[in-house]
Amino acid sequence: MCKVISRTMLALSLATCFCLFYTAAVAQTKILFVVSNQDFYGTSKIQAANHFGEIAIPYDVFTKSGYTVDFVSPDGGAVPVGYINASDSIHKKYLYDGFFMNKLKHTITPAAVVPENYAAIFYGGGGAAMFGVPENKTIQNIARQIFNNNGVVSAICHGTAGLAYLKDESGKSLYTGKKITGFADKFENKEEEYYKTFPFSIDQAIKNNDGDFVYADELGKGFYVVDGRFVTGQDPSSASKMASEIIRIIENNKLPVQEKSANYFDKVFSEWNNTSAKSGVAAALLKDGQIRYMKGFGSADLTREIPIDTDTKFQIGTMSKQFTAFAILLLEEQGKLSLSDDVRKYIPQMPDFDHKITIKHLLSQSSGLHDFIALKEISGWRDKDVFTQKDAVDLILKQKELDYIPGTQFSQTSSGLILLTEVIKQVTGKTFAIFSQENIFQPLGMTNTLFSDDNEMIIPNVAVSYQNNSDGLKNNFINHSIVGTTNLYTSAADLSRWYLNFENARVGSKKLIEKLNSPVTLNDGKTIFNPTAGRLLHGQQYLHAERGVPKIWTYGLEGGYASNIFIFPDQNVISFVLGNNNRYNGGLAMNMAIEALGNVFPQPASIDFSKVKTIKLSKQKLETYSGYYWDNERMSRLTMYVKNDTLRYQVSGNTYENTLVPVAENTFQIMADGDDVMMVKFRKEHNNLIKLIYTSGESDEYVFEKYTPQTYSETDLDKFPGTYYCKDLNVVYTVAKDKTGLLTSNKNQPVIRFNPIQSDLFLSSARNLGGVRFIRDKNQAITGFYISSDRIKNLHFTKI
What we know:
This protein is of the alpha+beta class. The protein is about 25% helix and about 25% strand. The strands form nine sheets. The protein has an eight-stranded antiparallel sheet with strand order 13-12-26-25-24-23-22-21, sandwiched between helices. Strands 27-28-29-30-31-32-33-34 form an eight-stranded antiparallel barrel.
């Protein structure tokens, strides 16, 4: 007999009611196994156990067919297992399967079960099954609810004892007149002490509850019976056949629309056909408030050969920002804070700037605060350094001057979301991880979702983060423990529960959901429309049309995890993919969405440039647009040039060449794949300054000014090298000179080059250092520099 000794209780308090349309979809992928905690036969000293084969064999059939299996026991925690046949390949496989054995070590309690999540309940056998399970009222109620939700009730061998007292809501037998089998009294050794401890005879108990107990005269023949949605087996030999029969019944009960679409959706993920030996994804598609497709592909753990299923956890990176925003709006709805509140009311240690920063400013990315991710890199933190929430907050609070007056403009900063988690902590007295668990995840039945605010936390059933390199696959560990902007672990099934809440709000009101999906605004009511991303929403996602159809989208990239979601609100379609495959998964998610949407797009997937009306411009005219262009707001440079009688451009640091076609005087369209109409207009100012205005669809304008690059002699460059100190960050940079120009370095990048733009202004090769503008005193001696980018403005360094 094998005994799992540790008895760790999995403490989960879950709401057990969920809408019926959710049941019809999610339940089709999950099976609930019932096992016993009983160590001994009754009060005797004779050891009892759950039958290992009656658990492992059906588990193998279910999981190979794409189903997720959970285990419940009367007390939760570890359960005894026995009757192990080490010469049986299935027994041996799962006896040494750490993931499977961990499930038996950490079974959930009946109170933690959400019955609506399961398509079937399966009572395992073994002598232990006679004790603790049959009389457990909560487990009886779970079985009744699963059956009432069109699910299957099944039991094998002594597990049939669990059916002894099953009643419907009126107190009548749940299986009146139905054929039920199990381990018949005929085969028991009634003279043995173990039998004398039994609380009842299985045969008689089923008959007393108005069932028709039947059995075969011989054991080991695989005898089982199916009567409606009751599937029962006589002994271990029936385990595999029973599981296959249960699957057949479940599949027959599936929604017709899901069956119709499943084959096409499977084709979207055909790269995983005939192989599970590579990292993969879990995907789901929701339409009209129902889950139409949900499945896992590939491996969650290549070393342990654990497949991805719909309960596998993935880190979803910046996709987690929406939960921070939701929590703030929930507290606002509860009257516990106001978006107009001064942030210093909750974070008094925050510097007293000349202008008030409100919660709304943090939520709308218009606070004027530096982005902590940029500060982290500039300060010398490396990607794999341990980085905590306190480290992030400390960096943010070191800022002495705002980048701009709060609410007057937007900037790409995540600092506001970090501070919002501190606000939540002060308002509720709980960390954001605990608050979200108690107020969002548990009420929605999201049992596989959590914020990890401890990088040493052991997270069960999680996909390994992999990195695909030229020399093969490697682990890509995540060592930070910040929350608010990232570090949410969730599964495809749980994320579906989250989005179903948008359709039938159980946590938060419909009004809150509408606000979450509405654009953020500045003090004057203006919104922001990023040419690449779209219009920023309160939920930290973006609204951007797809071929003329409104679409909400976002993505998350963290370590080797990659997640994408597309929401088409007018068609009520949600499609997402979560992966540990270290790549952009937007194509997979969009292909699923397109199948569900059908022919709703008024525009083609890609612009046909042969049909774009253009004008002819001479090479001489095109040459007037050639040159260098500088965006002083985002510290970005474009190079325009003529090649093969065509105007082209490159973005600094990018080797890809873009082609422009003239569509009007001084107006060009960028030739690019996709449906976005990207335009470039040239405008001459009164002082003969030429400006380039870039837009994508209805986006905001990005303005570049034409300039002549500054050139420096060797003597001129000799004035720049030296040591520069930033008091805010307590960090030193050494600027040096080599034969190619100025350079510096930090722990992330051994060489950061400074390319001259204008007088005393350089563009660094490090994104977060952006533009470096040196400053001089009245004697023209260099005294320091300012760093500015799209994430920070005017971070001061003094020459020492």
